[in-house]
Design goal:
The structure holds two protein chains of two kinds. Chain A is α/β, with parallel strands linked by helices. Helices cover 33% and strands 30% of the residues of chain A. Chain A has two domains: 210 residues, Rossmann fold (3-Layer(aba) Sandwich); 56 residues, no CATH class. Chain A has a six-stranded mixed beta sheet, with helices on both faces. A four-stranded antiparallel beta sheet of chain A has the order 2-1-4-5. A four-stranded antiparallel beta sheet of chain A has the order 12-13-11-14, sandwiched between helices. In chain A, helix 5 runs parallel beside helix 6. Chain B is elongated, with a radius of gyration of 19 Å. Chain B is mainly alpha-helical. Chain B has one domain. Classes of the chains: A alpha/beta, B mainly alpha. At the A-B interface, helix 2, strand 6 and helix 3 of A face helix 1 and helix 3 of B.
């Protein structure tokens, strides 16, 4: 029994000015993956390939046991999809959308849809064009969740929301997700959103996956070490250093392989460790991207 | 093929076009009334109005159902449903035809009834049928081009080509000996030339819609 909900193996897609190269991505059933990348990094292309909406040039994609794009209709029966560039029909009401989707999904849960309507503070008889952007995102989430999907794919759902609406949407999404266990792929360029919701993190940059691991592992192994060097001291060679900043006397080392023993190693080498700073996911992402781009240009 | 899904998508397109369909039917009925009771000037005016309404409903449905879904970004919503490209393409072709054809058939039946009822224009029978089918050909061209190109520019170009072709075909058909002879007579005639013209038109429809399925199946990007 394959317990992978999503499996990309050597997937490539080429456009004139952008290419997705050799993507390997695995998402275990029941896990929540945050998919982080800058604008234009390839998140949406990857997700569109996952949904069968864009066909890969090379490699294989399996989603919920279905080969994509060939078996996309069967796979999409178990996928709830919300995308930043997806719109509902403005001339129709939320109730119409629910009636439209209900016969298509055998597991459609009308009672749950009605509970979500109340939780999201939506009015079923209101036309979509009369809703605010935040309400439209909530309506799209409701329609995705009420299908009781095995896989929920959220492609930048919070983009364009004001801070209040973003917090509301995320809070309500997390409350809705607390109801039961689902496999989720959540893409965003906003690391704060992803950090709140995910247990796995994947970084993508310029069409390539640059790192993927458990969120806690990321947060544990990335550190900034603030050192003080003697007048003729040299920066100690530590494992996993991806960036050296600061000044020659007060260097700041960013490492992705932090171990507590590094502090004593530095002291042994004549450098004083002034501070060991934890890093936010955003700082980890930025350092990761910068170090990769520097390696590529070196 | 999931026919239930195709049916749901077609009903959805009908739902969003319901006002346009009703207005077009009303406009068509008014046009036929003008043709029937407007005397000689009314006959010409009513026919022009009828053809204009047919062209309008054809363009309106294709623009709203195919191009509009891309422009309004509802295509991503539709394509996220449990459907394949084949079901999407089938629903769009059938959906557009099922909006246009009932209107077209009603207007065709009305036109035929008017011709049959007025012996003075009996000779127009074959010409009217061929030109009515030509309007269907233009509609299918627009559906196929809009589906494959997903571009408003190309869809409008197809509409222009269809309308120009309507005039050219009208001129050519009116000069085919088997149709021209007796066109202004008072006897309903159906000669082999008319049958061949219809076969060519329906072959063109099959070619264009088959081509739409073929090119859709080769598409790699749906949104």
């Amino acid at each position: 029994m394959n317990d992978l909900a999503v499996q990309f193996d050597g997937v490539s897609k080429r456009y004139t000015h952008f290419s997705l190269e050799n993507i390997h991505l695995e998402l275990s059933t029941g896990s929540i993956m945050g998919f982080i990348g800058a604008n234009g990094a390839g998140k949406s292309t990857t997700i569109r390939i996952l949904m069968g909406l864009v066909h890969q040039d090379a490699g294989t994609v399996r989603v919920l046991g279905h080969a994509m794009p060939a078996e996309q209709a069967a796979a999409k029966l178990d996928i709830g999809f919300v995308s930043e560039d997806m719109r509902l029909y403005g001339a129709a009401t939320l109730a119409w959308h629910m009636d439209f989707l209900r016969p298509m999904y055998p597991r459609w849960d009308q009672a749950y849809a009605e509970r979500l309507t109340q939780r999201f503070d939506l009015k079923p008889q209101q036309k979509i064009k009369g809703l605010s952007h935040g309400q439209r995102v909530k309506a799209a989430l409701l329609l995705a969740l009420a299908r009781r999907p095995r896989l929920l794919v959220l492609d930048e759902p919070t983009t364009g929301l004001d801070p209040v609406a973003r917090v509301e949407v995320l809070g309500e999404l997390m409350a809705a997700l607390a109801d039961e266990e689902r496999t989720i792929l959540f893409s965003s360029h906003n690391t704060l959103d992803v950090e709140q919701i995910s247990d796995q993190i994947t970084f993508i940059d310029r069409g390539r996956i640059i790192d993927s691991d458990d969120k806690e592992v990321f947060l544990d192994r990335w550190r900034r070490l603030r050192l003080v060097l003697p007048a003729d001291g040299v920066v100690p060679r530590l494992p996993g250093v991806v960036e050296v900043g600061g000044s020659s006397r007060l260097p700041v080392l960013t490492t992705n392989q932090f171990e507590p023993a590094m502090v004593s190693i530095c002291n042994d080498l004549g450098a004083t460790v002034q501070a060991v700073d934890t890093m936010t996911l955003e700082e980890i992402f930025v350092a990761n991207v910068h170090s990769r781009r520097e390696r590529l240009t070196a | 093929m999931n026919y239930s899904m195709v049916k749901n998508l077609i009903l959805k397109d009908w739902y969003f076009q319901r006002q346009g369909i009703l207005l077009s039917l009303a406009g068509g009925a008014v046009s036929l009334g003008i043709v029937a009771f407007g005397g000689k000037p009314g006959f010409t005016l009513g026919l022009i109005l009828l053809v204009t309404i047919m062209a309008m409903i054809s363009a309106m449905t294709v623009m709203a159902n195919v191009i509009g879904e891309r422009e309004n970004q509802t295509l991503a919503f539709v394509m996220s449903l449990p459907i394949s490209y084949l079901e999407y393409t089938t629903s769009k072709i059938l959906g557009n035809l099922l909006i246009f054809v009932p209107f077209w058939l009603t207007m065709l039946a009305g036109s035929v009834a008017l011709i049959v009822a007025a012996p003075v224009i009996h000779g127009f029978f074959a010409f009217a049928i061929i030109m009515a089918v030509e309007i269907l050909v233009s509609t299918c061209l627009m559906i196929a081009v809009a589906l494959v190109s997903e571009s408003k520019g190309w869809a409008i170009s197809a509409m222009v080509v269809g309308n120009v072709a309507l005039n050219i075909v009208g001129y050519l058909v009116a000069h085919i000996p088997g149709i021209r002879d007796g066109m202004f007579g008072t006897v309903i005639q159906w000669r082999p030339a008319a049958t061949i013209s219809l076969i060519v038109e329906f072959a063109l429809i099959a070619l264009m819609l088959g081509g739409a399925f073929y090119f859709q199946s080769r598409k790699k990007d749906f949104i």
